[in-house]
Structure formats: C-alpha cells, structure tokens
Amino acid sequence: MRLIIVAGPPSVGKTSVIVRTAAVLGQGGPRVGVLKFDALATDDDTVYRAAGLPVVAGLSGSLCPDHFFVSNIDDGLAWGKGQGFDFLIAESAGLCNRCSPHLHGVLGVCVVDALSGVHTPRKIGPMLRLADVVVITKGDIVSQAEREVFAYNVRLANPRAAVLFFNGITGQGAGDLAFHARLAQPQDSLEGRRLRFSMPSAVCPYCVGETTVGREHQRGAVRKMSFETPAGESA
Amino acid sequence: MIDRVLDLGVAEIAGRHPSLAGFLAGLGAWDDDPEQPFAGWLAAVEDARLFDMGMERAQVTAHVGALLRQVTQWQNAPAPVIHALCVRGGRDKAGRPETLDLILRPGDVVCLVGPTGAGKSRLLADIECLAQGDTPSGRHVLVNGAPPDPALRFASPRTLIAQVSQTMSFVVDLGVGAFITMHAECRMVPDVEARVREVIACANALAGEPFTPETALTQLSGGQSRALMIADTALLSASPVVLIDEIENAGIDRQKALDLLVARDKIVLISTHDPLLALLGGRRLVIQQGAVAAVIETSERERTCLAALAQVDQGLMGLRERLRHGGRIEALPAWPAPP
Lengths: 235, 339
Ligand SMILES: Nc1nc2c(ncn2[C@@H]2O[C@H](COP(=O)(O)OP(=O)(O)OP(=O)(O)O)[C@@H](O)[C@H]2O)c(=O)[nH]1
Ligand SMILES: [Mg+2]
What we know:
The structure holds 2 protein chains of 2 kinds.
Chain A: E1 2-7, H1 14-25, E2 32-38, H2 44-50, E3 55-59, H3 65-83, E4 87-91, E5 107-113, H4 120-123, H5 126-129, E6 133-137, H6 144-157, E7 162-165, H7 174-182
Parallel strand pairs in A: 1-4, 1-5, 2-3, 2-4, 5-6, 6-7
Helix pairs in contact in A: 1-7
Chain B: H1 2-6, H2 10-16, H3 18-27, H4 29-32, H5 38-44, H6 47-52, H7 57-76, E1 85-88, E2 101-104, E3 109-113, H8 120-128, E4 140-143, H9 150-153, E5 161-165, H10 176-186, H11 192-206, H12 222-236, E6 241-245, H13 254-263, E7 267-271, H14 275-280, E8 283-288, E9 291-297, H15 300-324
The structure holds guanosine-5'-triphosphate and magnesium ion (MG).
GO molecular function (chain A): GTPase activity; nickel cation binding; zinc ion binding
InterPro entries (chain A): CobW/HypB/UreG_nucleotide-bd, Hyd_mat_HypB, P-loop_NTPase
GO biological process, one term (chain A): protein maturation
C-alpha cells in the first residue's frame, strides 16, 4: 500500500484535491482510502464518504494537531492495510505553519492556494519547504501573472519539489498528482520513521492548563518578546 | 559550486544571486553582518534561531545548493519552442471515435464553440497536460510531430497554456508597476524597467480608460484588468498557448488584443459565442458531446460579414460613448448593408 501525506493551511482545497485525485487513482480497480486529521471539527469525512471513499477521521481536541498526527499515523497505516487499500491518503490539518507532518520516505504533498497572496509561499515553513510535491489550487480565480509569480515563489521556497497547478472544482491537474502518487513508496510500517523536521520540544505553562495572564504564572519554557521604544519617539 | 558560494560574504551572495537575497534576509544573516562569509555565519548562529526559520543547519546548506541549481537551470534552459501542436481524436462521451487531426501553429487563432458542458474544458485540459491517451477523452497531443518528451510533459510547473478569463481578477495588494516588475523579475527578462513600461503602454492601448503604474491592481476596472492581463500574457508569459475565455463584454479592443498575441507567435484559443471574435479566428472547432464534431474554416463570405459586423460594433460603441457623455440617441449611425 502506498501512503501519501497531504498537508496545507485551512480551506486551501485539500479535500477537493484528494477526492479528484482518488477518482483518477481508483480507475480500473485500485482501492483508495482516506485518513482525516483535524483539530476541533470536520465535515470532510462526509465529503469523502459521498465520493465513495472509505474514511476514518480523528480530532486532536486538546492536543496539538501535528503531534496528534504523528502519534496516530502508524495505526492509520495498519488500518489501511487491513482494509486492503492500494493507496492511503492522509489529510492533515496544518494549522500553525510551524510544524510539518512530512516523514522521510513517505510522499509529502503540500497544498497552497493562489488566492492567499504572492508572498505566502515564503511564510509557510517546513510544511511547504520539505514537501515532495506542492499543489497550487484556485488558479482559476487569479490572473495568469499572479499564478506565475506564485509558482516562482513556491519554487524559491522549495527548489526540490514538483510544483503543479490544480483546479479543485474541475479536477484539472488530478492526472499529474496521480502520477506522483503512483511513484510513492509502498509502506509496510512506519515504525522508526523520522519526521523531516522536528516539532517544538518546549511545553509552556499554557500547554498544560494554565489560563491566567501574568508573569508569576509563567513557569517553565517561556519566551518573552522585547518591546523597544520606536526610534525618534520619547518614552 | 555550492562551497565556493557559501564562503562568500552574505551581501556578495545576494548581489550575485538575487533569487537568494530574500532567503538570506529571511534568515537574518544579512542584518547580523552583510560582510561576513555565509558559511561562518551559519556555523556560529544559535540553533534556536534556525529553528524559528523552520530549518536545521544541514537543511540550510542543502536549500542554498538546491536554489542555486534551480536558478542556474532556469537561466540556461531554453523556453520550449513549439512549431506545431497536433491533437489526435479520442472518443466522445458515448465512447464513439472522434475524427480529429488538428494542427495548431504559432500565430493561429482558433475559436471553440459549443454549449456549456459540451467538452471545451476537456479539450483545453488535454492540451494543457499533453494527453497521451490517458485522459477520459483518450486524445493524443503531439509536440512538433512527436509524443512530448517526459521532461516537457512533467515539467514543474508545466505552463503550456496561459489563461485569461472573465472570472479571473488581480488579488494582490500592489500597484500595477510594482507587480508587473515582480513578474518581469521572476521571468528573468533582461531589461525589466523597459518591459514593464511596454506592458503598461500596451494595456492602455487596449483599454479605453488609461491607468498609471501607480494605480492599485485591485482598483482597475474590468476592462482595464482584462487589458493588463492580455498585455502581460503577450509580453511576459512563457506559455506558447493562450486561452481566452469569454472576454466579449470586457470593454477592450478585441482586434488589437488578438493582433498583440499573434505578433508574439502565440497559439490563441478563444472560447466564445461573440460573432465578431469568432470570425476573427481562422478556424472554429464545434464541440458536441465531448468531441470535436466539426472544424469550420472561416470563409471569404464570412470575412466580408466580419467587415460589416466590425462597422456595427463601431456604431454601437459610438452610441455607448454618446450615453456616457450625457447625450441622446435620436439618430443612428449608418449601418452597413448586408453583404
Ligand atoms: N475556485 C476554486 N475553488 C476551490 C478550488 N479548490 C477548492 N476550492 C473550494 O475551496 C473550498 C475549500 O475546499 P476544501 O477542499 O474543503 O479545503 P480543505 O483544505 O480540505 O479545507 P479544511 O479541510 O477544512 O482545512 C471549497 O468551497 C472548494 O470548493 C479551486 O481550485 N478553485
Ligand atoms: Mg479538508
């Protein structure tokens, strides 16, 4: 079974991309299943079921969604194998731009949306920079020039990745992504696999339930900003 | 090559390789000391700062190396030269064979006609992905007479077709001049400033109401945006094929727009039901049931009609101008007699 990890900021079109690509991958018999990871709530599982794709959805609730992803992806893989899938596609929440669910040896796809502005590719971090394939959606509503500048900035942020345009509504581009998905390595188990980029190790007081604002409540790993008086103004 | 580059000072690297400048500035290496060799900076910087950039030390070196390779490749790779795109028929929605052997050459203007859902998008998608019998239509697209080199087919991102359509708009929050400069820079053209001036001048020639380089993109009118999109696509886009979708109501000079694209040796596909635009093309593809049902060459008689239609169009434009200036329409221009 081949595993594909799809990450990207909220509402960029991950589910649309996956549904369209799964339709191409499934042509002529291969079975495709989906794992959906999200933070608080998701309707994506209904969308996948409506498209005829078997799905399991998991909500991280009070945990960091990316940490939740790493803690569950291996069990998800075992589920997919048990179901006899040929392809398992994992959709991850990608909420804070700081973390990245990409694993060494597993095809990592990052979905970004051309509407989000030409500078966005620089700001997304390891989720985009360490992906194998970057999928650009919503090109149908921005100008050709912005599409080209956006793609250029994606390639500066990640010179190694394959970059492709995808229309999540018509499915144009699904053939290309399916091409990459078919080249993904078959996975037996993820035991011992490494993340491409480590997640923050610090646990701050607010991670463990502190709710009060103020210096005396901030014990443990706390980072303080420095606030300087702007030049030319007196304090 | 990478080792030599890493030993240079930060400012010097940025000067020699402008595409790396943004990355180096983002790392903070520039602010620390522009004269320091980058390798020295990287060895000394604290882990935490790299972490904030979302990178580990080895990944920074690998990233700079990959960027340099990428940029060198962009600069040296010639744009694909297409003398002929050939579309071989596949099958229609009912699975019946499609008889089609269409050859498109630079400077051709071809219109696509047919009801919504007939398969216009499918045909364009087949051309865009250089289909090899592996799309729902089963069509094959040959480049210069042969199946495309996989390097072209899976080029990343593949940019065979540039698109201008009524549904597209500029969303970036920049002035016209600043943004077109950005586009010209990423296309790595030699004289950026001159090219930007040319794009804006061309766009102003297509749209009625002029705008300046300082005008915000998001404040352009529909006609101005479409005019800028067409001028930019003609003069700055690398794509050999341009698709124009429903621009009949955009308020731009359609003949001039086509002339501009044709002069740049683009293959122009227009999806339209506007008689004036349709007759401006050399051929029309009639699309039905997911297949090209007929290829109509624009006839001599049609060209005569086109001349009359252009006159009608001019007449209507004059009436619009009259309304715009608060006039009345109590007399009509002389309409041409049917040829
Ligand atoms: N115009 C346009 N809309 C798109 C495109 N791709 C997706 N959309 C729309 O964008 C919205 C969000 O798409 P989803 O596929 O649900 O996005 P997502 O990334 O899975 O969202 P979350 O899982 O909630 O983070 C939907 O309304 C889609 O129809 C595209 O290429 N063009
Ligand atoms: Mg989704």
